[in-house]
Design brief:
Shape: globular
Structural class: alpha+beta
Helix content: 25-40%
Number of domains: 2
Strand order of the largest sheet: 5-4-13-14-15-12-16-19
CATH topology of the largest domain: FAD/NAD(P)-binding domain
Strand content: 25-35%
CATH architecture of the largest domain: 3-Layer(bba) Sandwich
Number of helices: 12
Largest sheet: 8 strands, mixed
CATH superfamily of the largest domain: FAD/NAD(P)-binding domain
Length: 389
């Protein structure tokens, strides 16, 4: 939706095909980083969604077994350098719906739900699409097709683009509860990472559908724990009680288990087919980089594709998009998310202590803390990608 909006703002007619009948209210990504807020502001989105999300200036890394905060990083330290020295906790499905409601379904920005692309054929001057719709099989020709259809991307598969990388042996489970951990755990902020050799955890707060909001916890699921057991109410309850023991059962609003991958498409462009977001790269969620990286793809691509369609540049500019954003995905999103996971799950006591010491030292020094946050917020990724020629 961000990519489509960015194209449409530059005078490009866009049609979005979405297999679901409406934006799905799931608990996927929710952290919008500072540079992404800047990009969305240029599209007229940020100021409209700010009152609807939770502003989070700090994030903390915890030693879960020790019950102590290892390091705190405060984006406020960057207030003289960046426009938004915080992240906005605003769920992905809400962002999608916000754009659809506000901007889509104009004459040149058409969003068609319950439409599934099932075939494509590239020609010399366009792409012929076959679409399964409520009315049956439809056919359409477009100048270019952008696959933003997730890790299992049909567009990527139809274009025969390899998806290189690996899948983690363990799965992740995400549990959402309205229980307000912040009222009983004194060292929490809105974004928390808990390092633990036995069971690391991430804990973040979002608004949900209203007060008191939702806390979303992510835990690893061992290879030998089957899905039905992991999703059972008693096992979900046990995980939450281990995290914070309390009287009575937790009310759980949402729970889901999923496989986690670290993969990048071999190319983000093949002729008139382009990839962006999870169809181009997937990673573990520790650090909130997947959704942001995907929106950075969309903005970069829209700028270049608009120039091509307006006759201001040759289509080789789209190869530059592929080189720049693939570089960002491999060097930053993949590398940083893998490193984040290793810190969270480190088992060797000496290595854990070394990691903690380095994080404390980094957080305590103004220069190193700022450098750490610039990288974590993907500012470095954008700068380096822009330098790729």
């Amino acid at each position: 939706m961000v990519c489509a909006l960015a194209l449409n703002r530059q005078g490009i007619p866009v049609t979005v095909f979405e297999i679901e009948p409406a934006p799905v209210e799931d608990q996927r990504a929710a952290t919008i980083h500072p540079p992404t807020l800047e990009m969305l502001d240029a599209l007229g989105v940020t100021q409209k969604i700010m009152p609807l999300g939770l502003v989070s200036q700090t994030y903390r890394i915890h030693d879960r077994p020790g019950g102590k905060v290892v390091a705190e990083f405060d984006l406020g330290r960057l207030k003289d350098e960046i426009r938004y020295p915080f992240v906005l906790q605003y769920e992905q499905y809400k962002l999608t719906a916000s754009i659809a409601d506000e901007f889509a379904n104009a004459g040149d920005f058409d969003v068609r739900f319950s439409h599934n692309v099932i075939g494509l054929t590239q020609t010399a001057d366009g792409v012929e699409l076959e679409i399964q719709s409520p009315a049956g099989i439809e056919r359409m020709t477009a100048a270019y097709v952008i696959g933003c259809d997730g890790g299992r991307s049909t567009v990527r598969k139809l274009a025969d683009i390899d998806f290189e990388g690996f899948t983690y042996p363990e799965r992740f489970i995400k549990i959402a509860t309205p229980f307000d951990f912040e009222t009983v755990v004194p060292n929490l902020c809105l974004r928390n990472y808990f390092s633990d050799p036995d069971e690391w955890a991430n804990l973040f707060k979002v608004r949900g559908k209203g007060p008191p909001g939702l806390w979303r916890a992510i835990f690893p699921v061992a290879q030998d724990e089957d899905e039905s057991t992991a999703l059972s109410p008693d096992r979900v309850e046990a995980r939450l009680q281990k995290f914070f023991p309390k009287a009575g059962r937790y009310y759980v609003e949402y729970v889901n288990i999923y496989a986690v991958h670290q993969r990048v498409a071999a190319t983000f462009r093949k002729g008139r087919v382009l990839l962006a977001g999870d169809s181009a790269h997937v990673n573990n969620p520790i650090g909130g980089m997947g959704m942001n990286g995907g929106m950075h793809d969309g903005i970069n691509l829209a700028e270049k594709l608009a120039k091509v369609l307006h006759g201001e540049a040759g289509d080789s500019l789209l190869d530059l998009y592929s080189r720049q954003r693939r570089h960002a995905a491999v060097k930053y999103v993949q590398a940083q998310s893998i490193a984040n996971k290793r810190i969270m799950e480190e088992r060797d006591p000496a290595s854990r202590q070394k990691n903690f010491d380095e994080l404390r030292k980094t957080a305590e020094n103004d220069d190193t803390a700022k450098a750490y946050m610039r990288r974590a917020a993907l500012f470095d990724s954008l700068r380096d990608a822009a330098a790729v020629s």
